[in-house]
Amino acid sequence: MYKLFFILLxxxxxxxxxxxxxxxxxxxxxxxxxxxxxxxxxxxxxxxFSYADYEIYIVSHSKDPIRSQGILQIVPTYSLDDVPKADIxxxxxxxxxxxxKGKEITDWITKQGEDQNYFSVCTGAFALAKAxxxxxxxxxTFHLMEDQLAKDFPKVEVVKGARxxxxxxxxxxxxxxxxxxxxxxxxxxxxxxxxxxxxxxxxEYDSWIPDQGLIVGGSNPYK
Length: 223
Known about the structure:
Layout: H1 2-25, E1 28-32, H2 39-51, E2 55-60, E3 66-68, E4 72-74, E5 78-79, E6 88-91, H3 96-99, H4 103-110, E7 117-121, H5 125-130, E8 138-139, H6 146-152, E9 157-158, E10 164-167, E11 170-173, H7 178-191, H8 193-202, E12 214-217
Parallel strand pairs: 1-2, 1-6, 2-5, 6-7, 7-11, 8-9, 10-12
Antiparallel strand pairs: 3-4, 10-11
């Protein structure tokens, strides 16, 4: 009886230690969603990151419900006032021209510090450009908004036709489904190509071609 108790106690300690270690090391990503956000812009990367077992925060200007494309109601977990610090902050398209006009988002980005990592899909790049994070850098955005991004932010070198652009701590992608490519690329950077391949297979994203984007900053995880 004593021996059985000792074994159970040992197993319990082992699982507790493992769980704490896993929680501590989980990559966290804050998804900033605005009213009118494009569904696939954020749902595609969310699917990828959830299979990667990353911790995802849903944050918006306030905790009031928002609607994606006027249909899907989403209740943010956090507002800009109380969102926890995340390893990565992500922005997405859909009504972003209006949503990113105010100072609040720019001020929030500015407070994050120089070691913060960012990810954007579609016109989410406008939020990063407005905060100066894309100055003198290459960037991707939705193909119908490439000229607008270049016009509004002359310091940004817009790469037309790129599925994603990796500038090190800032990754921007083209629109809609391209966000999945960017998300799989980010998983590759963090956890390796095999994990990204397994996720692509799990979600049946057969069209993924690794290294289809432009990698400017940092090391190339495909070499």
